[in-house]
Amino acid sequence: GAVVSQHPSRVICKSGTSVKIECRSLDFQATTMFWYRQFPKKSLMLMATSNEGSKATYEQGVEKDKFLINHASLTLSTLTVTSAHPEDSSFYICSARVTNRGDTEAFFGQGTRLTVV
Amino acid sequence: DQQVKQNSPSLSVQEGRISILNCDYTNSMFDYFLWYKKYPAEGPTFLISISSIKDKNEDGRFTVFLNKSAKHLSLHIVPSQPGDSAVYFCAASKETSGSRLTFGEGTQLTVNP
Known about the structure:
The complex is a heterodimer of chains A (117) and B (113). Chain A has 117 residues and is mainly β. Chain A has no helices and 11 strands. Chain A has strands at residues 4-7, 10-13, 19-25, 32-38, 44-51, 57-58, 67-73, 76-81, 90-97, 106-108, 112-116. In chain A, a hairpin with a 5-residue loop joins strand 5 and strand 6. Chain A is globular. Chain B is built from no helices and 11 strands. The A-B interface holds A 1, 4, 6, 9-10, 32, 34, 36, 41-46, 49, 91, 93, 95-97, 103-111, 113 and B 4, 9, 32, 34, 36, 41-46, 49, 89, 93, 95, 98-106.
């Protein structure tokens, strides 16, 4: 199957700093990527849809100035958590749709565990 | 508004027996359903999917059943193996939204040797 690589897998940062998470599609081009957040013992919540060459579409309640998304190429989307606070600590996961496929299957990255201290 | 629900947070079965994980949805616009398996600190791994035009899809030990009238789907794993122990997420999408998935809360499956 298609491979989506997410980096870093784990990051610890100080409160007030910014953290960038990368999501790469390794063997296919992805015009659309999705960013999810998972709270402990909770479902994966869609944060935003990242569109190559255009602005991301954020879900209701997600601060776009807080979670900056850049999809500069067909193989890379980045999520930057700006001015991170302890409540931003979570597990962030990206996914991508294979552009040439007719189905709606999404492939997921390995996830990033963010801890803000 | 939780459009996809997995009412059982956990399930424990004996190795070799059948595991049945359930999922209900409320949005009748959903037309594609998927099951993912997830280990801690990892991204979800796709297991099996089903389109709304079908009522059953089978792949090895995994079978997904869809009951559109009841807005209910289930994942059957038989025989269950200890390596199947993980959190299972049900997800749904609308064809027009691409791979924008709505997930259930997940069910922790534990298969005991």
